[in-house]
Design the sequence.
């Protein structure tokens, strides 16, 4: 049994909120640089090179990459040999978000009740997903999620008979409907299978996978490649103003499902696809 | 083409802006997003007044991140405009001449743009650090309690935007996509 003080969780989450909002992970940075070279539209290239300038300014002057510094989505993968001490884990995580957003000059975008809509003024609470894993380590992924793209995300409860084509059409429909609203070039996270909520969580987690990594399942990998090509033929382009770079990656996760169903979730993220990862 | 225009924007300058033009705005503009629009709309419904004059003015759909010490503003990019579609036609009919945001607009907004000789500009979404460099000063003038959603008066210099819907109803989002579609 390994003991971890929860204040260590708070400290790491605070730092990760600030880091993720000012610096893109290397996979996103590389993909955006490559896109400037490959974009066909002149205005598209201009927008992509402005995004390069934006990232440079964000890192050098410590200005958030985007003013929508997101709702803090946090994946906690906890080894079952780990014991936490010093308070509750959930409080410690939210305290990390609070400190990160207040001390890091990040925008407070969370309302405490979805209909009363009063701002909580410290960006808490976070949306936390827990997974219990073997071992004695804790893997933390902090993925602040902006809502321009979140609002364009979809869940489709398809029929088994809709099959592979049905899934592809669902993804393309979601992306085309999103268009300029989702701040393309986007990253498309897809969850196929499971249940209503399981596919949505899989789609969210797919966004935290490196954009240069494919699924290990051969047919899923092919589907990722085919969908990316089709999305980039849609013409939407950078900023939705026309071009050949509409998405940087399509990341698909799958899970067993029920004989009667084929749930598909499409979680769309803008080009500011933020994820910071640490293993304690 | 590239244009340099002053804000508030004259009726003539607004009509010269054509879908696809790259425009640099210098002068005074105002921020308002979801909650501020709701309040302005409710004020109008009750026969009240708005916190600022609409005539020839520009509203930037934006809620900034907090400014660090010594800086006018934090990250300051556009938010999705369609959430303001419910409220925009009333403001356009009161003389609002420009809106800066990102994303699609409704037919009702497009009709109000044409009816009033106005223009809808897009700023590059997700480029809030870069766009903040074109903002010289920022002052909250109304609805302070809304935090990031308060109405701010901004002084901007060469603030870069692209004309998406012009006063004739041309829509760059629709035409540009057709040009690069490979299906």
Sequence:
């Amino acid at each position: 049994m390994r003991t971890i003080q929860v204040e260590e969780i708070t400290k790491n989450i605070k730092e990760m909120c600030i880091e993720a909002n000012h610096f893109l992970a290397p996979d996103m940075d590389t993909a955006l640089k490559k896109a400037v070279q490959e974009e066909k539209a002149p205005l598209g290239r201009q927008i992509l090179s402005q995004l390069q300038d934006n990232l440079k300014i964000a890192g050098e002057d410590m200005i958030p990459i985007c003013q929508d510094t997101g709702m803090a989505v946090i994946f906690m993968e906890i080894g079952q040999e780990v014991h936490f001490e010093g308070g509750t884990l959930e409080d410690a995580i939210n305290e990390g978000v609070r400190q990160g957003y207040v001390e890091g000059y990040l925008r407070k975008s969370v309302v405490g009740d979805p209909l009363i809509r009063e701002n909580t003024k410290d960006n808490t609470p976070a949306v936390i997903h827990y997974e219990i894993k073997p071992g004695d380590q804790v893997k933390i992924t902090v993925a602040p999620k902006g809502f321009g793209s979140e609002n364009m995300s979809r869940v489709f409860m398809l029929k088994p008979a809709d099959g592979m084509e049905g899934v592809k059409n669902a993804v393309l429909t979601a992306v085309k409907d999103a268009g300029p609203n989702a701040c393309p070039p986007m990253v498309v996270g897809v969850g196929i299978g499971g249940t209503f909520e399981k596919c949505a969580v899989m789609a969210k987690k797919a966004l935290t996978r490196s954009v240069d990594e494919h699924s290990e399942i051969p047919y899923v990998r092919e589907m990722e490649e085919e969908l990316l090509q089709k999305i980039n033929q849609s013409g939407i382009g950078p900023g939705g103003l026309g071009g050949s770079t509409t998405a940087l990656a399509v990341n698909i996760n799958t899970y067993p499902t029920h004989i009667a169903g084929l749930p598909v979730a499409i979680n769309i993220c803008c080009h500011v696809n933020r994820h910071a990862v640490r293993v304690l | 083409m590239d244009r340099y225009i002053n804000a508030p924007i004259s009726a003539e300058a607004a009509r010269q802006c054509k879908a696809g033009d790259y425009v640099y705005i210098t002068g005074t503009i105002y921020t308002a997003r979801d909650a501020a629009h709701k309040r302005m709309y409710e004020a109008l419904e009750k026969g009240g007044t708005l916190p600022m004059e609409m005539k020839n003015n520009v509203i930037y759909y934006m809620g900034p991140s907090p400014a660090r010490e010594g800086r006018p503003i934090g990250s300051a990019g556009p938010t999705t405009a369609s959430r303001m579609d419910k409220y925009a036609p009333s403001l356009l009919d009161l003389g609002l001449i420009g809106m800066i945001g990102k994303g699609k607009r409704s037919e009702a907004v497009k009709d109000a743009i044409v009816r009033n000789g106005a223009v809808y500009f897009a700023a590059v979404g997700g480029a809030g650090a870069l766009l903040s460099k074109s903002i010289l000063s920022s002052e909250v003038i109304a609805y302070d309690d809304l935090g990031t959603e308060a109405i701010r008066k901004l002084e901007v210099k060469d603030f870069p935007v692209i004309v998406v819907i012009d006063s004739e109803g041309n829509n760059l989002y629709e035409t540009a996509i057709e040009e690069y579609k490979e299906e």
